[in-house]
Structures are given as structure tokens and as C-alpha cells.
Design goal:
The complex is a heterodimer of chains A (80) and B (699). With 80 residues, chain A is mostly helical. Chain A has one domain (3-73): ACP-like (Non-ribosomal Peptide Synthetase Peptidyl Carrier Protein, Chain A), CATH 1.10.1200. Chain A has four helices and no strands. Chain A has helices at 3-14, 36-50, 56-60, 65-73. In chain A, helix 1 (3-14) crosses helix 2. By secondary structure, chain B is of the alpha/beta class. Chain B contains 28 helices and 17 strands. An eight-stranded mixed beta sheet of chain B has the order 15-16-14-13-12-11-10-17, with helices on both faces. In chain B, strands 2-1-3-4-5 form a five-stranded parallel beta sheet, sandwiched between helices. A four-stranded parallel beta sheet of chain B has the order 8-7-6-9, with helices on both faces. In chain B, helix 8 links the parallel strand 1 (138-146) and strand 2. The chains are: A mainly alpha (80), B alpha/beta (699). The A-B interface holds A 1-2, 5-6, 9-10, 13-16, 18, 36-37, 40-41, 44-45, 48-51, 53-56, 59-60 and B 18, 21, 24, 27-29, 31-32, 92, 96, 116-118, 121-123, 125-126, 129, 149, 151-152, 302-303, 305-307, 309, 313.
């Protein structure tokens, strides 16, 4: 299961919408509840699920699902 | 040749402590390669927690939520402890199937299980959706004022409030605007009329430097006390605040505390001063004690710089638990009775089999010492007003023998207000305790190492809190420390004497059985009543009684400390307290009567009595006192109203008994003072003394 499917589970949980299906381009424009508070929660939930920490630069540059994926991919096979 | 499915099974079977992540990763690989069925059959053979968990996840992907439900039910630890993660999953499935009630019950259980912050993020929307299933009994208004983003704290507090049957409404101005909100008469805060103000400030608000002269500290303190004064003047809310925590990176290292001008030392001094100056309306929570129970850092610099989040998200659950426990305490909703199992809960081993000498309690056994520490902890709870009871499957003599004779036992038989060692099932024993002690099940906590007993009590008596414990004594302490079920924000002399008073009730039962007539029995008790007008000294206890008395309570009106104090000084209110002593115990302040006074007519607003002294004729005495005073003021009649609740059937006929008759309006009754027949209270009179300003409130 690629990263996006694992992210999808987190998004479904946070927005409590089992029918939610995110794509790389999915952004706050598509998900009405994705506000700044939800953003903080998503960051924390992703950190928890993947046992990693984002840097402050990364946190401020996450604008869509793809940005999460890029940040996670950059850590594959390394110590987060 | 080992198959891919077996590799996956091995990866979860031997997974480390973070099972959720291991299971997720394993499930991801199985799904990606389409070998879920192979993995499922590989999982059949060796079940442990991780493999059961993976089984549930994969069954869901292959056969749907319905087929996975029984597998999720099995995701419990070897000691039978429920796991919040699995409960959340089951709750989600219940909602999907339309069973909101069951989902609510599962979520409540999960929220009692001290889940981490990640759980709150992923469950909060679901919890909100299940709101009707939590059976909220009370609405509360909470204003969150802070110099940081309080939204995350609000969501956690909301979940915990719903768990505790409190329906919160929040007021949350933008961060940093708290002084404006407090000082401007037309701010939203005033209109919101909060019951509670949670004040979240941090060390940055103190304006300190690495090295602080005394002037800085004085300024910092007055900055905080000004906030308090504004909050007290503008609102009638109870204010709850955490103490300040020194910033963790401090270039002065140990010097920061060693130097009297160091920042850490200064902050400690500021906290100390704040505790000394805090008025009754302010509850300070020591942040250090919250930190002690959390492994992670108090602040997280990235969360702070990117979103002004304070404290760190990972400590929010325990911060919120502390805040909500103080709210419960203020509302009189703290639990009152701790019921303890015996074998492998209060000592190691089984007394019925090992004998009193064979159990592990106290040195030299290491685990015995930990059980002894647990007993000391329980004893201290008892000494500050928590009632203790025993419910255990045992021969009564075996069980009592330990408390009578065992060298290592800190607890003695007279520490318990109820002692049920027998072979009845636990729920029945607990129900019997409730009726004997006249206490509601929603004031009970049960500690029991046996998962089957815990499950039985949870299912039959869902009001009782049953924390997950394994029997390891240090874990039992940790469970009580986490849950804060017995939180108290003020200590009254009644709290300290409570256990003795309940014990005395049991001895009175014996007297009642031995003695003859009711009058004779009452006379034998040598009762003495003291009474007077509610004043500053008595208002704390009066507020406590008003907020937690359910049974002998005519109207069940609840008033905050502030509202009590307003009525206490109002010329339109006649506001009395009553205190009872007898030959067995000083029961403390046990009755409250409040009437609104008009020219011709007094209207009974509140009439209540602690359930400990029901059946003593005290209500007759209270009635006489009221009639007396009303007559002297020139009033002609009393007006009253019985407001039925689920618990106050006891006072249904109280008013008719004293001669009140139905008036025009529904439920309202009146009594012409000219026609009053005063009840006999000879067993009380003679010993009566009027004490207008007797100090009985605080210690």
C-alpha cells in the first residue's frame, strides 16, 4: 500500500468521512473542513503514524496531500 | 522456504511496543501485494495481541466491517484490557451500522483509557457525532482565554466533558485578546456568561529575562493577579489556571535554579506567591505534577512557532484531564467511593488459598512492598474524604483476618464503610452498597484486577468507573492518578470526618435493630443541632451540598459559590445551615434551607439534607426553624414547590406531611402560618443551641 493509501486512512479519521478518497493534488480547496486547525492535526497525526517529525520549513510548506508524500518520501529508508 | 505471508506474520508477531504502526505497515504490504488471504491463514496459528489486531484489519479489507467485528472484539491485551485504538475502530463500525448508542458506550470506555493525543485527533469528529449517545445531564459554559492557540485543547476538553456527561459550550476569543475580553464591558466574554474560565498563560507572558531582578518578578505577579481581578469583577466564573513552567532550554543550566536571580528560580517563586494569593474563585493546578506523569517535553518549539500551540500537543490529554477534573470537583461531580477487590489488587496472592501468612504484603517481598505502598496511597485517599469499600469473592473471615492481624496491612477494617467479602456476584454487591450507603452508582470507582469482573460491572452498572488495571500495584496507583476521579479543590472538615460519619451510620443501624420505638432510638442518639445563617465560613460547604445532594433535595437547584455568596448577603433571602452531632459522630454541616422573603409570603427555594442523616427528624427541626422566623418577620404564608427528579422521590410527600396544601398553580403548594401544626422534635430540642457565626467550613 503506497503512502497515499495510508494517508487516506488518516484523512478519513481526521475528517470522519469513510468515503473520502484523497489524491496527490487534494488540497484545502477540495476539503471544506481542512482549515488551519485541521492542518495542525493532520501534521501531528501523520507524524504519529509514520514515527517522524516534520521540520518547521516543511510544516509551513504543506499545501496539499502531495506535499505530505514528498516529505515522507524524502525520509524513506533513513532515520527520520 | 518461508512464504511472504509468514514473513508478514512474523513481523507483527515480534513487533515492539508500537503495535499500531507495525500492524499498519504489515497490512499495507499485504494489501499492496494482494496476499491478505494468505496472511490471514498464516495468522490463525499463533495468536497474540498483534496478530489478532492484524487479523481484524485484514478481515475488514477482505470481508467487510461486519465480518471483522468479532475479530475487533478480541483485540484486547493478554490481561483482558481494552485498547482505545480497537474501541475506536469498533465505534466507527457501529456508527456505520447506525448504532450510535453502542458507539457512544465504546468511545466513553476508550476515553476512560487514557488514550494519547493522536487518538483524540482521530476520534473527535466521531465523538461529536455521537454526542446524543453520551447522555449529557448538564450544560456548562467554558471560556478559554489564553496567550496561545487553545483550539486543540478545546477539542480534547470537549471529548472528556462529553465522556463525563457534561455538555460544554466554549467561548474562545482569538489568542492574545484575553485582556481586551476581560476589560471591555461590551466584549463577547461578558455576554457569554461563562461558568468556568480556563486561563492558559505561559512563561513568555511574565516578561522575564535570563537573569531577573526582584522588580521583574513583582511586575510579573501583579500582571497575573490583575487578570484574576478583571475576571472576578466581570464574570461570576470559577477560574482555572496552570502554574508557569520555566522554558526548558536555559543557557544558565543548573545556575537558573541555583542563583536567586535565575529564571527557573524566579518562576518557582512566582508560582509560590500565586498559590498564596489565589482567591477562592481561582483554582491553580501545579503544571509540574502534570509534567511528572508525562514522558514528553512540556513545550514543542515547532508547534509553538508554526501555530502558537502551548503546551506541546502530546501533553494536552493530561492537561485537559486535570482541567476537567477540577470542573467536576467544582460542580460536585467528583467520585465519592473507591471499591477495592482484595486478592491481587490490595495484596499479592489469594488469601483463601495461601492463607494470611502466605500473601505478599509489605517487606521483604519486593512486590509485597509495592502492594503496601498502594495501601498507603489508598489510606491517604480515605483520610482526605474518599470513602473506601471492599468487594471481593472470598470467605468473609479470611478477608477480615488480613486487615485485623497482618503486619504489612496499612488498611484496617474501620477504614472501610462497606465490606463485602462473599460469593455473590460483584454487581449485586455493589448495588447493595449503593442502597446501604445511600449513594448513587455514578459516584463509584471499582479497582479490580480480574477482567471478567470488570466486564460484568461495566455491562450491568455502566455508571461505575472501572479503570483498566493488571493488578500490578504501581499500575493501580497510576490509574487513579491519571483518572483523577476523586479530585477535590477545597478541603472541608466534613471531608476529613466523612468516613467516621458513615461508619457511625452502620453502628446506628445496629442500635435501631436493638432498640424499641423510633422516638426512643432517636433519643438514644443524643443528637444536637447547631444552626445559623450562611456566612463566609459556611458558604464553601453549603455550596458543596447544594451541588451534590440528590436525594433529600426538594428543588435540586444548583448554585455556584458566587451565587451562594450573593444570596447569603441579600436582604431578600433567608439562608440557613444546620449541623448535626450525635453520640457516635459529628456529622458536620448537613442541611441547607433557603427561602425568598417577601412582605406577606416566604417562598422555599432550596431545602436539602445530606443523605447520611435521613430518618433523624432533622427536617422537622428545619421546618420549625423556618416557621418560627417567618412568623417573626410578619409573614402569613409559606409557598413551596416540589421539583421531581430521577433521584428525589424521597421528598415527594415532604410538603404535604407538614400541612402544605395545593395552591392554584400546578405543583405549587402553600401553608397558612396561622394553621401550622408544628412537628414534635423533643428528641432534638433542649440540646439545641443557636450559633450564628460558628466556624464549621474550612479547616
Amino acid at each position: 500500500m503506497p503512502i497515499i493509501n495510508q494517508l487516506n486512512l488518516i484523512f478519513q479519521d481526521v475528517f470522519d468521512d469513510p468515503s473520502l478518497f484523497v489524491r496527490s493534488e487534494t488540497s484545502p480547496n477540495e476539503i471544506a473542513d481542512w482549515d488551519s486547525v485541521a492542518q495542525v492535526k493532520l501534521v501531528l497525526a501523520v507524524e504519529e503514524a509514520f514515527a517522524m517529525r516534520f521540520t518547521s520549513d516543511e510544516v509551513s510548506s504543506i499545501h496539499c496531500v502531495g506535499d505530505f508524500i514528498a516529505a515522507l518520501n524524502s525520509r524513506k529508508g533513513t532515520v527520520a | 522456504m518461508i512464504t511472504a505471508a509468514e514473513v508478514i506474520r512474523a513481523s507483527v508477531e515480534n513487533a515492539g511496543p508500537d503495535l499500531r504502526r507495525a500492524v499498519q505497515a504489515a497490512a499495507a504490504i499485504a494489501v499492496e501485494h494482494g496476499i491478505q488471504r494468505e496472511v490471514l491463514s498464516a495468522l490463525e496459528s499463533r495468536p497474540n495481541l498483534a496478530t489478532r489486531w492484524l487479523q481484524a484489519v485484514l478481515t475488514e479489507t477482505v470481508r467487510g466491517p461486519g465480518a471483522a467485528a468479532p475479530h475487533w472484539e478480541c483485540v484486547v491485551t493478554p490481561t483482558g484490557c481494552e485498547i482505545p485504538e480497537a474501541l475506536l475502530h469498533r465505534a466507527r463500525n457501529c456508527v456505520r451500522e447506525g448504532d450510535i448508542q453502542r458507539a457512544g458506550a465504546l468511545l466513553r470506555l476508550a476515553l476512560h483509557g487514557a488514550p494519547d493525543y493522536d487518538f483524540f485527533i482521530r476520534s473527535e469528529t466521531l465523538v461529536r457525532k455521537c454526542k446524543p449517545a453520551f447522555g449529557c445531564q448538564r450544560q456548562i459554559r467554558i471560556a478559554l482565554l489564553g496567550s496561545s492557540t487553545t483550539t486543540l485543547l478545546r477539542s480534547v476538553m470537549e471529548s472528556l466533558c462529553l465522556r463525563d456527561k457534561l455538555e460544554p459550550e466554549f467561548y474562545e476569543p482569538p489568542f492574545g485578546a484575553y485582556m481586551h475580553e476581560l476589560l471591555h464591558p461590551d466584549s463577547g466574554l461578558g455576554a457569554f456568561r461563562p461558568d468556568f474560565i480556563v486561563l492558559i498563560l505561559n512563561n513568555r507572558d511574565l516578561g522575564l529575562l535570563d537573569v531577573c531582578d526582584n522588580g521583574l518578578a513583582v511586575d510579573a505577579i501583579s500582571r497575573v493577579t490583575e487578570v484574576w481581578r478583571a475576571a472576578i469583577d466581570r464574570t461570576s466564573a470559577q477560574i482555572i489556571q496552570l502554574t508557569f513552567v520555566p522554558p526548558a532550554p536555559d543557557a544558565y543550566h543548573v545556575l537558573s535554579s541555583a542563583m536567586s536571580t535565575g529564571r527557573a528560580r524566579t518562576i518557582t517563586r512566582i508560582n509560590e506567591t500565586l498559590f498564596e494569593r489565589a482567591p477562592a474563585r481561582v483554582t491553580l493546578i501545579d503544571a509540574q505534577s502534570i509534567m511528572a506523569s508525562n514522558a514528553g517535553a512540556w513545550e514543542d518549539s515547532i508547534s509553538w512557532s508554526s501555530a502558537k500551540i502551548y503546551p506541546a500537543p502530546r501533553v494536552l490529554p493530561s492537561v485537559a484531564e486535570h482541567l476537567v477534573s477540577c470542573i467536576r470537583a467544582e460542580l460536585g461531580l467528583s467520585r465519592k467511593l473507591l471499591i477495592l477487590d482484595l486478592d491481587n489488587t490490595l495484596w499479592g496472592g489469594v488469601v483463601g488459598e495461601d492463607g494470611p501468612d502466605g500473601i505478599r504484603l509489605g517487606p521483604p517481598s519486593a512486590v509485597g512492598e509495592r502492594y503496601q505502598e498502594f495501601q498507603q496511597y489508598v489510606k491517604a485517599l480515605g483520610q482526605r474524604g474518599v470513602l473506601l469499600a471492599v468487594a471481593s469473592k472470598n470467605n468473609p473471615e479470611d478477608a477480615a483476618e488480613v486487615f485485623r492481624r497482618h503486619q504489612g496491612s496499612v488498611l484496617r477494617l474501620d477504614d472501610f464503610v462497606a465490606f463485602k467479602a462473599n460469593w455473590l456476584d460483584k454487581p449485586s454487591n455493589i448495588l447493595q452498597m449503593a442502597s446501604e450507603l445511600r449513594l448513587g452508582l455514578e459516584s463509584f470507582v471499582l479497582l479490580d484486577d480480574n477482567p471478567a469482573e470488570r466486564k460484568a460491572v461495566r455491562e450491568r452498572l455502566p455508571e461505575v468507573i472501572v479503570p483498566e488495571i493488571s493488578g500490578e500495584p504501581s499500575e493501580s496507583i497510576a490509574a487513579l492518578e491519571r483518572g483523577l476521579y476523586f479530585q477535590a479543590i477545597r478541603l472541608t472538615s466534613e471531608d476529613v470526618a466523612r468516613s467516621a460519619s458513615y461508619l457511625a451510620s452502620t453502628q446506628q443501624e445496629e442500635l435501631r435493630v436493638r432498640g424499641g420505638s423510633l422516638d426512643q432510638y432517636l433519643t438514644d442518639l443524643c443528637m444536637r443541632i447547631e444552626y445559623g445563617s450562611v456566612s463566609a465560613d459556611t458558604s464553601v460547604r453549603v455550596t458543596q451540598l447544594i451541588n451534590k445532594t440528590n436525594q433529600f433535595n426538594l428543588t435540586t437547584k444548583r448554585y455556584s459559590q458566587e451565587e451562594v455568596q450573593r444570596r447569603m448577603v441579600s436582604a431578600d433571602c433567608w439562608f440557613r445551615w444546620y449541623r448535626l452531632c450525635d453520640r457516635f459522630a459529628d456529622h458536620g454541616l448537613i442541611g441547607v434551607l433557603l427561602a425568598e422573603v417577601a412582605d406577606r409570603e416566604w417562598s422555599v427555594d432550596t431545602w436539602l439534607m445530606s443523605c447520611r442523616v435521613i430518618g433523624r427528624g432533622v427536617e422537622g427541626f428545619m421546618f420549625r426553624d423556618m416557621v418560627d422566623c417567618a412568623r417573626r418577620s410578619g409573614a402569613e404564608r409559606l409557598r413551596a414547590h416540589y421539583v421531581p427528579t430521577a433521584k428525589n422521590k424521597l421528598v415527594e410527600d415532604l410538603l404535604p406531611r407538614f400541612g402544605f396544601v395545593t395552591a392554584g398553580n400546578a405543583g405549587e403548594v402553600v401553608l397558612e402560618l396561622a394553621a401550622v401544626v408544628l412537628p414534635e422534635c423533643s428528641f432534638l430540642e433542649g440540646e439545641v443551641m443557636q450559633v450564628e457565626t460558628q466556624r464549621v467550613g474550612a479547616l
